[in-house]
Amino acid sequence: MPTIKYYLREGLLPAGVLTSPNQAHYDDEHLRRLRLVRALVDVGGLSIASVREVLAAIDTRDESLHSKLGAVQEAISQPSAVELDPLAIEDVQAFFARQGETECVDVTGSNVTHMLAAALSVARSVGHDHFRDLLDPYLEGLKIIAQADVEYIAGRGSRDDVIEAMVVGTLIGDAVLKAVRRLAHVQVSRDVIDGRPDSDPLN
Amino acid sequence: MPTIKYYLREGLLPAGVLTSPNQAHYDDEHLRRLRLVRALVDVGGLSIASVREVLAAIDTRDESLHSKLGAVQEAISQPSAVELDPLAIEDVQAFFARQGETECVDVTGSNVTHMLAAALSVARSVGHDHFRDLLDPYLEGLKIIAQADVEYIAGRGSRDDVIEAMVVGTLIGDAVLKAVRRLAHVQVSRDVIDGRPDSDPLN
DNA sequence: GATAGTAGAGAGTGCCGCTATCCATCCAGG
DNA sequence: CCTGGATGGATAGCGGCACTCTCTACTATC
User: Fold this and answer.
1) Domain HTH merR-type: where (chains A, B) (predicted)?
2) A24 phi and psi, to 5 degrees?
3) Is the CB of B150 less than 8 angstroms away from the CB of A188?
4) What pLDDT, on a 0 to 100 scale, did the predictor assign at position B201?
5) What was the pLDDT predicted at B21?
6) HEC states along B7-42?
7) Is residue A143 very low, low, confident or very high in pLDDT (cuts 50, 70, 90)?
8) Which residue of chain B comes nearest to A176, CA vs CA?
9) Interacting residues of B107 by C-beta distance below 8 A, sequence separation 6+
10) Is the model's pLDDT at A146 over the cut of 90?
11) Whether pLDDT at B141 is above 70
12) Using CB atoms, which residue from A45, A127, A141 is nearest to B145?
């Protein structure tokens, strides 16, 4: 309960309707918002500041859903202090060019692209210069996943539901992806082992 | 530089070879290890304690690569304090049964499955009871990704390289996946928009 | 009227990831 | 041989963050 008061103070939850100077009323919308905040913190691992950004993006009324999704993604991708390797930046730009994305040439202009460049920079720093080769197969698999995401979101009714489904699908989805990826690794590596038991590179 | 001393104290880096009581020698292996630690912290967002677990898994000599990968995945999936929804646990068990994974019936026995159940529990708590329907398409996409991962790892030479590629591929891969997923969303939602411009659910 | 409960706000707490200080020692330059 | 700067090792301190505690003013209830 003190945590709720803290969230109220931090502006993560709207103030209740004051029925008297020391009595406020909270409705279902407050509870829903509280659960969303807990979801972002517990599963998404977001900081309070990031949660505030996400909520601000949700509550902005005059934006398309597309830009809302972008804002959410920006908020959940806090930039790290990694210095970017110019070669990694080139890798990202080449990847975008390959995918026909011309608008994202400025890698540092977005937290998401910055995060991608940072990840590839760190990969290079530990000697994995060719990690970029994984970008295309990753995108291929993620297209299937994104297809499911879009269908899931489109199945929502009201606009508010769509927005929340977007946030949930993005953030909880990331956590689910991490976990399911483990299962996929197990399955694929088992297939590889079954396929060529004598030249097993994984055991 | 003080940070390195701190890591030494925390046991994340092995002590250098003392050439004299106050002079230690550090070789390339130390530098490599340091960069790995920074990679885990900066990109993976791991805590120092988790990094210690990952390194312990790497340094354990008498395990198969398969169990090493499992140990790494366990270390990077720190369990949250979310209480699990029994229905979400059932969802996870049904998913595993569907995929022929019989060994993971104990959901709380592994950080990874616990994380998956926690994510689905939180999804349920915000009203997304059918988020579990995404598990199968997620796995389908992740199999493609895991295929690329395994090929990438198998292309490594020495056993140490394979181990490090596993860690890098898992942890940096998660970060890359998060970023690339955004691009996939953009592409897929644009395809949807192009396909049926009048019933656009995303704008 | 006594009691219990609430809103609101400020201060305090505990943990975590460093960072700064201290001292004994050692090595290099003169 | 002497001195200044650097190093290893250990201890203590700091700053940020996510709460949590406490205090006051007030009111609704018994």
Assistant:
1) 1-57
2) -120, 150
3) yes
4) 45
5) 67
6) HHHHCCCCCCEEEECCEEECCHHHHHHHHHHHHHHH
7) very high
8) B116
9) B84, B89, B92, B93, B113, B114, B116, B117
10) yes
11) yes
12) A141
